[in-house]
Amino acid sequence: MANVETMNDKQRKSIQRTPRQRAEHQAIREAFRDCTGPRELIASGAAARLGLDVIYSPAGKLLKQLKASREAAGLTLADVSARCGMDQAALSRLENGPTSSPTLDTLWRYAAAVGKRLVLSVEDVPATRRAAPNAGRSTRKKTTAGKKTT
């Protein structure tokens, strides 16, 4: 058992941090230690104070906007449920809890029920590295499958 621990100690690489980075890291660890989980940390506002921008799904921001739209329109979850055919409990989980990944159909139905239109777009991603000289060309060689060579 001692050999395994010694081996692991040798394999670990030391991370060099500045005093400021160590203090930030310690503050985050202490905040997590006092919470029962990430949901509580986010709900309490501690995550935002620590500079942690945590969203459980890419649709998180969109769902916040849709909830605000529902509330601004004076609609209850029962109203939205009747309009889109989704269960009130499911709508509540969608608005308030971390969801795995709502489908586009769910988002479109919810948006339509609160008088909004869901618009999807595609944007260019800045290049992070140079393209290879043969980028876009297939480098796979032709095979002679099924042919025998003699």
Average pLDDT, rounded to a whole number, is 75
Low confidence ranges = none
Q: Helix content range of the residues, please?
A: 40-55%
Shape: flat
User: How can the largest sheet be summarized?
Assistant: none
Rg, rounded, reads: 26 Å
Structural class: mainly alpha
How many distinct helices?
8
- End-to-end Cα distance: 59 Å
The run of helices and strands is HHHHHHHH
Strand content: under 5%
Tally of DSSP β-strands: 0
Structure description:
The chain has eight helices and no strands. By secondary structure, the chain is an all-alpha fold. Helix 6 (77-84) packs across helix 8 (104-113).
Q: How is this fold's topology laid out?
A:
Elements: H1 2-11, H2 19-34, H3 38-44, H4 46-49, H5 60-72, H6 77-84, H7 88-96, H8 104-113
Helix pairs in contact: 6-8
